[in-house]
Design brief:
By secondary structure, the chain is α/β, with parallel strands linked by helices. 34% of the residues lie in helices and 22% in strands. The structure holds guanosine-5'-triphosphate and magnesium ion.
């Protein structure tokens, strides 16, 4: 995939701000700090496009990235971050639900999970929602470079089992550091759009 232009279209907190040009969208969901923004940057080979941070909760709006006027990548706020207030969590939750449940342009939602850890109850819940809405799951297991080679197979198996993946689902081990899984992820995206 050869990208010429990738730019932020809008950071939305309300549906009134969503883009109106009717392009297909792929959203990226997952726990705070799992690597959603880093995934987007790596996919687009644009280092600082989506803002990343080692402080969880960096992405607090729904960010729409326009890619060559062909598709939007949608960076969602992360869930599961303990240190934000209840009120803040509720606000983010509602904002996400509003987007995920009402957006006709949304072609798929990828679920990002950290390859080092067993997916959380919230990940499982998100996986169920995605399966219900899109028929299959596309899971990106992030931060693969942080695993020892000897751990990879076992950890990936834990992700598969916990999310109850079937042969119709896709799981891509990914490293934003090394670029592992990038080509495979683009193939999947191209098939969707
Ligand atoms: P929120 O916006 O808070 O929901 O987080 P996010 O899911 O967008 O995570 P982000 O991309 O900001 O990454 C969080 C931290 O993990 C940053 O310090 C990244 O540099 C780091 N990180 C993300 N992906 C990788 C990866 O593949 N390998 C390594 N080693 N670090 C990564
Ligand atoms: Mg982010």
């Amino acid at each position: 995939m050869n990208i010429h232009n990738a730019s932020i279209k809008v950071s939305a907190v309300s549906p009134l701000q969503y883009p109106t040009d009717n392009l297909p969208e792929i959203a990226f969901a997952g726990r705070s700090n799992v690597g959603k923004s880093s995934f987007i940057n790596k996919m687009l080979n644009r280092k600082g496009l989506a803002r990343t941070s080692s402080t969880p909760g960096k992405t607090a709006q729904i960010n729409f990235y326009n890619i060559d006027d062909c598709i939007y990548f949608v960076d969602l706020p992360g869930y599961g971050y303990a240190a934000v207030s209840k009120q803040e969590k509720k606000k983010w939750g509602l904002m996400m639900e509003e987007y995920l449940n009402t957006r006709p342009n949304l072609r798929h939602t990828f679920l990002l999970v950290d390859s080092r850890h067993k997916p959380s109850a919230e990940d499982v819940q998100m996986a169920e929602w995605i399966r219900y809405n899109f028929g299959n799951l596309i899971v990106i297991a992030t931060k693969l470079d942080k695993l020892k080679n000897s751990q990879i197979e076992g950890n990936i198996e834990v992700v598969r089992k916990t999310l109850k993946l079937t042969k119709n689902d896709v799981l891509i081990p990914f490293s934003a550091e090394k670029g592992t899984g990038r080509d495979e992820a683009w193939e999947v995206i191209e098939r969707i759009i």
